[in-house]
Amino acid sequence: MINQHKVSIFISRTEDGFNYFSHDKLFIMLDAATDKMDGLNVNIEESWNKQIANEWEAPYFKELVQFLRAELANNEIIYPPREQIFAAFENTPFDQVKVVIIGQDPYHGIGQANGLCFSVAPGVRIPPSLKNIFKELNRDLGIEIPQLGDLSPWSKQGVLLLNATLTVRANQAGSHQNKGWEKFTDAVIKSISENREHVVFMLWGNYAKQKASSVDRSKHLVLEAAHPSPLARTGFSGCAHFSKANEYLVKNNISPIDWRL
Known about the structure:
The chain is of the alpha/beta class. Helices cover 30% and strands 16% of the residues. The longest helix is centred in the N-terminal third of the chain and has 15 residues, at 59-73.
């Protein structure tokens, strides 16, 4: 049953029947039996839908869904799990966004991705970049280094953990890049910049910096640092983004983030 607080956008249907994946927040019709698809059916959290509803009917988004259909028709495994593809939006409604952290694409290993950038599902080994994030959290705020890598408690406080690409083929990093997701997430970032005030953008690495180039720095705080990956040439350690974000939020009469996990 569709949650009454979500918005359903029915566009059309396939002609020879369909297979689909669905939950109360995302529903995309897929037909593995034919190459023709006339449209899709999407549910997304209502406050986000008001901002990005036009994206569903954009040519690039229809092409993206065609691509995803083809992946499933070829029995490709896609991460994160289907019900978590839009988890960042469901956990953090548009009008509750306080901080935006931008990643590139989901983890591509078994059981890792949970729809939130840098985050992994409970019980999964913590990746190197996330270890460095936790080390900086400890250095910056004295918070004990977490033993689990699930960042959903952050997202539920207003931290939008946004990957530029929302899906990936199993064991193939970057396999769903340049298929349309980047245009969708560009629209998301633009909407936040234009329609919200006093949001903190944490940009780690050159990719994130370029991705958020449209952010209005007169309205928002932009914090930049090297990527937390151990492979980054310049250090992520010492950026103090967590304390700086909270200082900015408090200064603007916004409740700070409890970064403990």
